[in-house]
Design a protein that fits this description.
With about 80 residues, the chain is mainly α. It is built from three helices and no strands. The chain folds into two domains: about 40 residues, no CATH class; about 30 residues. It is rod-shaped, with a radius of gyration of 31 Å.
């Protein structure tokens, strides 16, 4: 059976090796490149998207109410006199 300390030591050494290698620099550069790319896409946050969705839902409901009101004003029910 393998000693768990050997695995921990190996993981530690591999972690140090990766952090000292060009892989860490590549990761940093890739993150910076992606951040720049996403900034140029003119994206909105999920929070802003949800807020605008709620505004749109309220606007649609208000429009529906106004259309129904206009229809009632233009086409009043006929009285049975």
């Amino acid at each position: 059976m393998l000693d768990p300390r050997i695995l921990d030591d190996l993981a530690s050494r591999l972690g140090k090796l990766v952090s000292a290698s060009p892989v860490a620099d590549i990761e940093k550069n890739a993150r910076a490149l992606l951040a720049t790319f996403f900034t140029k896409l003119d994206l909105v946050s999920r929070e802003e998207f949800d807020i605008q969705t709620q505004v749109l839902q309220r606007s649609r409901a208000k429009l529906q109410e106004l259309e129904e009101r206009l229809d009632r004003l233009e086409n009043p029910p006929e009285s049975k006199s």
